[in-house]
Amino acid sequence: MTQDKLIQRVLKPLVWVLCLAPLLVLTVLAYMGEMTANPIEFLNRYLGEWALKFLLSALMMTPLKIVTGWAGFTRFRRLLGLFSFFYAVLHLSSYVGLDQFFNWKDIWTDLIKRTYITVGLGAFIILAVLAATSTKNMIKKLGGKNWNRLHKWVYVAGFGGCLHFFMMRKGVQAEPLYYAGFLVLLLIYRWVYYLKKQRQRAGKTAPAAL
Amino acid sequence: MLIKMTKASDIKSSEITPKAVFDDRRRFLKTAAFSGLGFVAGSIAPSSLANEGRGKKLIGIEPSKWTQKSVGEKLTDYESVTSYNNFYEFGTGKQDPLTYAKDFNPKPWTVVVDGEVENPGTYSYEDLVNPHTLEDRVYRFRCVEAWSMVVPWVGIGLADMIKRFGPKNDAKYVAFETLNDPDRMHGQRRRVLEWPYREGLRMDEAMNPLSFMAVGLYGEELPNQNGAPIRLVTPWKYGFKSIKSIVRISFTKTQPPTSWNMSGPREYGFYSNVNPEKSHPRWSQAKERRIGEFLKRPSLMYNGYVEEVASMYVGMDLNKFY
Considering only CA atoms, which of B6, B210, B222, B251 is closest in space to residue B112? Predict the structure, then answer.
């Protein structure tokens, strides 16, 4: 089997199933009555955390490619990003449909008064735009350069998500800081790599100029 | 008096799941967990499956005027009251206290009483509690996070306890402190808040007949996760004012610092009375979700205790003194 076929036929379906595993776990928890005494809150937090986990996973693919030297990692970037959006949709739906029960007036008040909700919606809108432009057709339509520039916004969404999580929790809690710390590490890694690359390029061009 | 019409839909006390049936359900779930789904559920949620070791029955409890009938609402079931807790000393997750407070042995327990008081000293739990008759009190409990419960507490009126200490005229406030012991309270190893947890009341608030020192719930000793062995309950204030596992009671001339106010003064005031009109930067306080119910319900001014407490705040700007 060629590597391409391995990715297409084995790894991608496997990752797909893994991405759905949180929903399976949720079903088991619901069946067991283990969603705490406040299942609506539990569900909402659970979905939100998975949206963030998948977003960070998607952002981890390129660094993984560089570290391991296996280019195949980038093939999972879109899949993971779309699953992040999928969980974000469920997270938002649980807020609108269960927590607020479609009370649009209260939702609007939350949006303008509670900063963490404003920030969260901002991150969601970015993810929606990125998801909508994630097809091959859209890449062609926008052109590689524009598309790349647009999809850099995923970092803003990542920070928005982490900030949303941090602000939602009371006091200085550990979990949101772990997420944010991880995101910062990923960014630092990329930046260092970028600098190294530039230096290499400069090193290469210099002798040629002689 | 709180006027509350009993609706036909209200669940009568006789309909509340008897404990035996409830325990059977737990046992069933446990069996199910360890047979089929054991390997999944066991790894995900071992905490609440091990919900055993109910507290000792408390004896000699007298009824009070705050009964389930006078509140006119259904009690929140025992499992919810004891498995869904904010007690950051044992972790920030709602089920962390149940999981991590299991081995917290509260007794022997002592409470330091100091400050502007005639009878300062170190009181043992027994010194504090035994001279009093225990009372049953059913109170609404409203968390600042916009969820609420109805809890049948057992304990002593705070005013009765305070009278024994003999506060001096200079005592304008009462300050409370929770145990600070990171070895026994692992949540204190991280500085989520500045430990020890601190709370306070104005003297008239502390002497209000509603203020209560709980040592039990559902007729049994207070479970560790609910603030064993002794905690405050001020039902007209947001839940975080009802400080748990108290080791110090100080009578002060000036307003004492309080934990959440120190952490976020814009969000949590010293008074923190339930007020649906004063919205919180994080949660609208207009509504709340009663644990066990789907739709939110409107929150009540002073959590429905207007008659008992409103007079203490007459003339105060509640938007300023939130």
Answer: B251
Q: What are phi and psi of B143, to 5 degrees?
A: -80, 150
B197, B185 contact by CB (below 8 A): no
In A38-77, the residues whose Cβ lies within 8 Å of chain B are: 38, 40-42
What is the predicted ipTM?
Answer: 0.85
State the angle between helix axes of A115-132 and A77-93 in degrees (0 to 180), rounded to the nearest 10. Answer: 140
Residue position matching structure tokens 């739709």: B295
Please give the pLDDT value at position A205. 63
Residue B212 forms beta bridges with which residues?
A: B157, B233
Q: Across chain B, what does the average pLDDT equal?
A: 87
For B28, the enclosing helix (H) or strand (E) is: helix B19-35
A104 φ, ψ to 5°? -65, -30
pLDDT at position A203: 75
Q: Which tens digit of pLDDT belongs to each residue from B215-264?
A: 999 999 999 999 999 999 999 999 999 999 999 999 999 999 999 999 99
Identify from B92, B143, B195, B266 which residue to disrupt to test chain A contact, counting A C-beta atoms within 10 A and taking the largest count: B92
- Which residue is associated with the tokens 């996973």? A57
Angle between helices A115-132 and A144-151 (to 10 degrees): 160
Cβ atoms < 10 Å from Cβ of A30? 13
* pLDDT tens figures, A30-69: 999 899 999 999 999 999 999 999 999 999 999 999 999 9
Phi, then psi, of B235 in degrees rounded to 5: -70, -15
Asked if the C-beta of B289 comes within 8 angstroms of chain A's C-beta atoms, the answer is yes
